[in-house]
Amino acid sequence: AWQRLPVVSQDAFIAAARNTHMTGYNLFAKRNLISLAGATNASAVVVSPGMGGSIPLSGISATGGSGTINVSATVGYLPAGYALQRVVFVAWRNVNPQSDSLDRFWSGDDTTSPYSFQFTGLSPGQYHVSAFTVSIDTKGNTLYGAPFTATVTVS
């Protein structure tokens, strides 16, 4: 799944693994092996590990339609001196992680409020969609927020 993960999600894991004895890939594997152990669906996939001090979301809303998912996110508080670069949206089809592989992720982002994205061209079925922030702190560091996830059905 790492190779198919959107680059921005890989970047979030790489950044969170800095100054540790892990690589971004190792952190991704650790977080997802723990969250998906024994799971019968892929709702617990972690697409951003989140970082302390990042700008949080306060929630997301997602609806499925005919071949589409419409998702919007609400940003929480903005600490003084921080800049919100964008809100990232990542979707994946629900599978049983014990028997199927996560073979495809879709992603998009929005840089202006209200933050939203529409995924199109999707096959019918159940999907999970996460949103997380990418921000810059007062020292110029790029921070990645913890994701909020919703489940939707695409017709």
Outline the structure in words.
It contains two helices and eight strands. The chain is an alpha+beta fold and 155 residues long. α1 (7-17) packs across α2. The longest helix is centred in the N-terminal third of the chain and has 13 residues, at 24-36. Helix content is 15%, strand content 38%. It has helices spanning 7-17, 24-36; strands at 57-64, 69-75, 83-93, 105-110, 115-119, 125-136, 142-144, 148-154.
The rough form would be described as globular
- Mean pLDDT across all amino acids: 94
Radius of gyration: 15 Å
Beta-sheet strand percentage?
Answer: 35-45%
By secondary-structure content and strand pairing, the structural class works out as: alpha+beta
The largest pleated sheet is described as: 5 strands, antiparallel
Task: Tell me roughly what share of residues is in helical segments.
Answer: 10-25%
Unreliable stretches (pLDDT < 50, length at least 5) are: none
Number of strands: 8
* Measured distance between first and last alpha carbons: 25 Å
Number of helices: 2
Topology as a string of helices (H) and strands (E): HHEEEEEEEE
